[in-house]
């Protein structure tokens, strides 16, 4: 196999990369998961009614959606997505479940037609749940052209994938140089 290909990446999820790799993420994923009205009280916070006046009274607010950065947020997002996929079973739902890392999907296909079908099916599946897949990128020019026409393409030739850089044009993974302490 060509050295520019990835065989397997593991980081909480599994993505076996074959001829056509693809990555995408869920736009504002945490904000799309609403909190039940009775759960909003535990997300209260105070804010100055006039931020330019430090003596102004505080106003109390409550979040209506899952908080980005809260320890439990990735779990709540994952549970929400899994419930949606269980209610809408399909090969696409199974693949996303397998290759999802928080709000990012990294997967691959042997055939370009399968990749294109995944693009259409996954966008439709996630839209049913109120989610929008964006920042699509792939080593498939066909997918990149379609994503560009639908304004969901990540136009960068280099994409961050699980702590590495992937040059989609050359289909090569780039690893950051790390100094290793020779005394260890």
TrEMBL record:
Entries under Gene3D superfamilies matching the protein: 3.30.70.270, HIV Type 1 Reverse Transcriptase, subunit A, domain 1
InterPro entries reported for this sequence: DNA/RNA_pol_sf, Rev_trsase/Diguanyl_cyclase
Organism superkingdom: Eukaryota
Name the record gives this protein: Reverse transcriptase domain-containing protein
